[in-house]
């Protein structure tokens, strides 16, 4: 037989051993990846996007040297253009697993408006409207945040107290404004934080039941008060709770690469495009002058992950290891009419230290006369415990 024709038949027929081995190797790799993804999704209770797509789960090698190099620096889009990108092409859930430890390092859920049900949209809107209302009542708070380089940040929930005798306190609640807000309006808003915390908690749990359970357990073990709940709440009262405070950002917020000073292992956050001032969620097409916002991506530096927030026409939910992995929001440019609004939930280390040190909200004997009057002025709907320095119910300590 002519060798030339024999070689031709070999090329067209049976594959070479080298090619067969490569195909077998690729098949094994796909099977291992599929098995890893199935196990991870099952054990961590990873949820799905609004269109119920199977979560995308990938191994990421931790780049510690890059994290150390960029720590404390402001990043722009060009600095991270080679990162794995999560954009707005489709509704999806993405999970990054550390290649060495096989621990979950990051979870993202993209829910595009075109895929949302009316109920999902209303649930998201309720949350963003609450923070927009809080902003309208308080204005801008002067919060200490060493990593922040632009924009504004406010917060709700619990923090360490700063006045004599006040060990643990809530963030200020704002003051009545003539023709805008009454004392009763503010009081209803403060009470509303309980329901908002529960709503956020439901979204968090649906994204990862295991991580949510971990955060709930930490909150209970550390004995810190939950955002929207009274000091000393326990048992069933904390079933929907996982954080002590919630920080929300707006007005072109960005920051440097940093790790959070939190007691909680993970941070849960949500991002969306809103109408300035109202908090109304907006599609790109709804922006009257067009959405020319650029930049402002969320980046997890050691795992080379970039979430392109301004390109996503929907709501983004993220879970990341705030105290452990260097992360940031990149710089960018804003536009007229709409803005990026976001919030993140955590358990503050400073609050944990106060609770460990004092074990109670306040020391009645050390309170100023003004604070005593404020405390007793609201004793009609709460039971005061002057000896132990606790209030049995109510979501705040003093009506600032």
TrEMBL record:
Pfam families: 2OG-FeII_Oxy_6 (PF20515). InterPro entries: 2OG-FeII_Oxy_6 (IPR046798). Residues 1-35 have a biased composition (Basic residues). Signal peptide: none annotated. Residues 121-330 form the Tet-like 2OG-Fe(II) oxygenase domain. Residues 1-40, 379-400 are annotated as: Disordered. This is Tet-like 2OG-Fe(II) oxygenase domain-containing protein. It comes from Ascobolus immersus RN42.
């Amino acid at each position: 037989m002519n060798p030339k024709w024999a070689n031709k038949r070999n090329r067209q027929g049976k594959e070479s051993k080298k090619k067969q081995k490569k195909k077998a190797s690729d098949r094994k790799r796909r099977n291992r990846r599929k098995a890893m993804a199935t196990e991870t999704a099952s054990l961590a209770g990873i949820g799905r996007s609004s269109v119920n797509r199977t979560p995308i789960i990938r191994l990421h090698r931790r780049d510690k040297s890059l994290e150390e190099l960029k720590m404390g620096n402001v990043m722009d889009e060009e600095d991270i253009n080679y990162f794995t990108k999560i954009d707005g092409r489709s509704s999806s859930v993405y999970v990054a697993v550390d290649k060495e430890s096989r621990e979950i390092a990051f979870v993202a859920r993209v829910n595009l408006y075109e895929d949302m049900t009316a109920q999902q949209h209303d649930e998201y809107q309720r949350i963003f409207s609450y923070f927009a209302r809080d902003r309208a009542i308080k204005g801008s708070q002067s919060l200490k945040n060493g990593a922040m380089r632009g924009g504004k940040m406010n917060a709700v929930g619990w923090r360490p107290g700063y006045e004599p005798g006040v060990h643990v306190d809530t963030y200020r609640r704002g003051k009545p404004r003539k023709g805008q807000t009454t004392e009763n309006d503010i009081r209803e808003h403060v009470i509303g934080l309980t329901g908002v915390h529960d709503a956020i908690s439901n979204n968090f749990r649906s994204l990862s039941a295991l991580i949510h359970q971990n955060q709930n357990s930490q909150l209970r073990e550390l004995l810190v008060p939950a955002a929207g709940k009274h000091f000393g709440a326990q048992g069933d009262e904390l079933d929907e709770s996982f954080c002590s405070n919630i920080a929300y950002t707006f007005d072109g917020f960005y920051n440097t690469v940093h790790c959070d000073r939190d007691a909680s292992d993970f941070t849960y956050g949500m991002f969306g495009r809103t109408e300035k001032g109202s908090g109304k969620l907006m599609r790109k097409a709804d922006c009257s002058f067009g959405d020319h916002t650029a930049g402002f991506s969320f980046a997890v530096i050691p795992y080379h992950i970039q979430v392109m927030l301004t390109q996503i026409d929907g709501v983004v939910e993220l879970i990341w290891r705030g105290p452990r992995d260097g992360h940031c929001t990149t710089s960018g440019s804003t536009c007229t009419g709409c803005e990026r609004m976001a919030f993140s939930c955590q358990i503050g280390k400073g609050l944990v230290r106060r609770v460990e040190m004092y074990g109670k909200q306040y020391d009645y004997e050390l309170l100023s006369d003004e604070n005593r009057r404020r405390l007793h002025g609201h004793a009609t709907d709460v039971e005061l415990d002057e000896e132990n320095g606790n209030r049995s119910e109510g979501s705040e300590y003093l009506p600032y």
